[in-house]
Amino acid sequence: MSESSGNVSKDFIVPSVVLTAICAVAAAAMVCTYQVTKPIIDLNTKAAADAARAEVYAGVAGFEQLSVEGFENCSEVYKTTGGEGYVFTTTGKGFGGDIQVMTAISQDGKVVGVKVLEHEETPGLGSRATEQSYLEQYLGKDSSLSGVTYIAGVTYSSRGVNDAVSTAFEVFETVKGQ
User: Fold this and answer.
1) Number of independent structural domains in the chain
2) What is the reported pTM?
């Protein structure tokens, strides 16, 4: 083997070993950061969800989570600890993607509150269906949702919100009385 071929292999091996070590250190740092921050992120996420539940169902003492299966577009169901009603986190399809909605329904089957948690609708157009002024029309409605209107030109977004509220009523029929 010539001296030049020894230098060539050394020129390729040393940088490869150094880069591998750097990658290993960076990966270990990311794992450690994730493990340290995950509990904090989980607590903040839970606190934000608790605040949203308290916003859509104001004046109740607290909430307890119920386990419900078989509803594809429902991710969470909470019952108020005082038995006033339930809070559902459901999803509908909008124009820009999924619209995640939190709906509070009283024990007698009337909407107490509606809040859009997440959406990807077009700002200034589709996002109008996620504004509180639009969502207020749901207050006091029963499962028929009669009288709910869609916004002209924003029917996909309006329908997505409406579908999410309708899903909340479907789940309500299953859990009421629990």
Assistant:
1) 1
2) 0.76
